[in-house]
Amino acid sequence: MTCPAGSVCKQYVRYQSKDKAGNWEDIKTSAETRIDKEKPTTSIKLSGVEGDNGWYVSDVTVTLSCDDGSGSGCSETYYCVDQSDSCTPSVKYTGPFLISNEDINYVRYHSKDNVGNVEDVKSTEVKIDKTPPTAWINPLPEWTNSSDGSGDVYFDVYWNGDDGPTGSGITSYSIQYIIYNRATGNYVTNNCGTADWCDWITRDETDPKQEIFGLLDNPENVEAFNNHTFLFRISAKDNAGNVMDYSINPPWENTSIDVVSPVSAISTVSYPGELIVEAFWQGWDNESGVAYYDVQSNMSGSWDYLTDTDGNSTYHTTKTSGNFSVSSDGIYYFRVRAVDRAGNVETPWKYSSVLVDVSPPVAWMEEPYNEWMKFYNFTVNWSGYDTGSPPSGIKCYDVQWSNDTINWNYIQYNEFGDLTECVLLTETIFGLYGFTDLKDGITYYFRVRATDNNGNIGNWSVKNTTIDTYSPVIIVNVTDDKGREIIEGYVPADVKNITITSMAWDNISGIKKHTIHYWLTQNNKYTYGEKECGEALPWGDWSNCSITFAYDEDTVIKYYVKAEDRAGNVNTTPIRFTTSHPLANFVIHQAAIGLGDSILLKVQVRNIQETVDNITISIESTITSAKPKFENIGSGDFEIQADGKVLQVYNLNPMEEREFFVRIYSSEIGTYYLNMTAQSNVAQPGLIDTDSAKIIIGYPPSFPGLAPWSILLLVILSVTIFLII
């Protein structure tokens, strides 16, 4: 007998028997047979105080009920409670039970009938939060002076809250305020029209937990008044609807407003014969009160805080007087400012000065600046100041020169023979009047001292410089890999590399900088470079260096050497060339372009002769249809002839190089050569130079997405444009 799963079936058996004589028994019917394959069903009922958003704000009573329909009947029910929705029902249900745990709880349950059918486990969420959240306003400063510059006072209020690890979570905050007038001792009327607590703001948990209190341009804010105290209290509401009472967290946060800066005064006195200054200061503030003073002096030339003779610092001091040691005689300035408890800083400072005896003046040589000098007459100047008290000022300077530091002489500073003995001058030209026999390699010393109007004479200050008017000597040599010297820039065909060697020498101040500058045309590239050769010691030391270039067939090297000594004298060699192309060459010797395109080839034209030259350059192609032409681009005096096939370059100076360009059009695919012939017409008539470049023309790149007829149309248009040109 069969019965479908999940069903309850009723079945009967009818039967009879027959004997050997063929007699049949009457048909009999069995008793009813019932088959139960249906699982029982359990329902749940929750009872408690409901809050918001599906939360309960009280303990919850859970009632489970089992129903087996027409089946065998419920046998027993089991349940369990956890917070992860993963427990196995193991507690036998005997009646309603209570859940008091504050959290998101899960009741998991199922029942079994009398024949053993077990219901699938069910789960019901029971969210309980009986406790209001906690919120607080972050501590405010006792005093605040924040202002937006318009006279409206404002400050930031920060808050936060917590609903515990098992709470439903805070949804909003509400903050109230009340205003207390410190001058009258009364609470004052606020924006709510009362002198009691007034609603200020309500913010969601997702909003920033910060608000500015006091800006008049924000409708949610109120004006904060000077000399008033503002008290704040906060309430919070959670997702379950629990609300924190305003009164559970006094004393409330508060801050008092003070935007008026304090006022101070200072006086200073000194006593004869003592290197001590006594200072007295005091301050006034009618609101938050003076918190401290800052007292400074400019004893070191800049304003600094002090330490008095008792070891107390004047930075943020609460003292109102002090004695201060000074290191020397002079006029000393003191200043004070007061800062109140709200942080208002007095401006401007209040000043006082005091006089302490006298000191001699100080003078120093300023020019000559350098240890080396490249002129026979040059500026000598000096400066000084008086440290006396009161400063009597510089009366005059004594300025002297010597070439041995033993015999000193005053400088004649005009054609009348006047000397730099006790003068008010601060500058003169040495070597222009009187002694003019300045010589290279001689060191000249200068010294100055000052006398103030009180007769105090300062110490001498000395400076020196050595004359060097000669430029450095440069020797340049160019050789090939076989040790042969390259003459006039021509390079034999068998050369593998070229070495440029430079030596620089200065017999007085010495080499400061020594550089080989070069331009290299090689391997389809045109590059500039420098070779630093280093310094050399004064009095005749050499600075040497060399640079070697691999020399391919079409290499062109243009170079010059520059050397500078420590006195600033410079020597620069003329530009020279080392090349197998004395007249002209292509910069690159192989190019690939697409059909219908064009390209510019750079041509370098040079004159390595000793006289001005005119050079004729002609070009021709191994494919007639290529039509190479010189572009009208270049410098100096030139002319394009023969429909662009000939370039005439005029008045090319010795060792001068110019650049020109050849335009190549591609009208048919293939590989061809562009040949160039250059001829000297003036400097060395009959001198001929040749060069060539390999041009490869191919089909343009494929155009994804274009039909073949579109590509053919582009090629036809390119050829048409070429023929028109």
Q: Outline of this structure?
A:
It contains one helix and 54 strands. The protein is mostly beta strands and 725 residues long. The chain folds into seven domains: 1-37, no CATH class; 42-128, Immunoglobulin-like (Sandwich); 134-257, Immunoglobulins (Immunoglobulin-like); 263-356, Immunoglobulin-like (Sandwich); 362-467, Immunoglobulin-like (Sandwich); 473-579, Sandwich (Immunoglobulin-like), CATH 2.60.40.10; 587-698, Sandwich (Immunoglobulin-like), CATH 2.60.40.
Write the layout of secondary structure elements.
Layout: E1 8-11, E2 14-15, E3 28-29, E4 33-36, E5 41-47, E6 55-56, E7 60-67, E8 74-82, E9 91-92, E10 97-99, E11 103-113, E12 122-128, E13 134-137, E14 143-144, E15 155-162, E16 170-181, E17 186-187, E18 198-204, E19 210-213, E20 228-238, E21 253-257, E22 263-270, E23 276-284, E24 290-297, E25 304-305, E26 321-325, E27 330-340, E28 350-356, E29 362-367, E30 372-373, E31 378-385, E32 394-402, E33 409-410, E34 427-430, E35 443-452, E36 461-467, E37 473-480, E38 497-505, E39 511-522, E40 525-532, E41 542-550, E42 556-565, E43 570-572, E44 576-579, E45 584-586, E46 590-594, E47 598-607, E48 613-621, E49 629-630, E50 637-641, E51 646-652, E52 656-665, E53 670-680, E54 688-698, H1 708-724
Parallel strand pairs: 6-12, 14-21, 30-36, 46-54
Antiparallel strand pairs: 1-4, 2-3, 5-7, 7-10, 8-9, 8-11, 11-12, 13-15, 15-19, 16-17, 16-18, 16-20, 20-21, 22-23, 23-26, 24-25, 24-27, 27-28, 29-31, 31-34, 32-33, 32-35, 35-36, 37-38, 38-41, 39-40, 39-42, 42-43, 42-44, 45-47, 47-52, 48-51, 48-53, 49-52, 50-51, 53-54
